[in-house]
Specification:
The protein is mainly α. The chain has three helices and no strands. The radius of gyration is 15 Å and the shape is elongated.
Length: about 90
């Protein structure tokens, strides 16, 4: 039950991260207003969309010249993996 909820959550946050990243790329090319705040992109990553955000950014070449994103999102991902492993090992023992 909890596993299914977590899977659905990570699918949803990943899809939201992909859509927001693609929208921001579109807005950067075609709109002068209505850009997505950088804090929002980083928050989506921190909430569990880091893999989807990073892969999307690399595929569409968005924010790849920004150190904040090219170091920040992988660091968020590493932290998420470390915390997940810690929780996993705590629950097993």
């Amino acid at each position: 039950m909890i596993r299914n909820i977590l899977i659905c959550y990570f699918i949803a946050i990943s899809l939201i991260s992909i859509v927001v990243c693609i929208y921001d790329k579109f807005a950067s090319k075609h709109l002068t207003k209505h850009r997505t705040r950088e804090a929002t992109l980083l928050l989506l990553s921190a909430l569990g969309g880091s893999v989807a955000m990073l892969v999307t950014m690399l595929i569409i070449r968005h924010k790849t010249k920004h150190v904040k994103f090219m170091l920040g999102i992988p660091l968020i991902l590493l932290l998420q993996v470390a915390v997940s492993c810690g929780i996993y090992f705590i629950l097993l023992h």
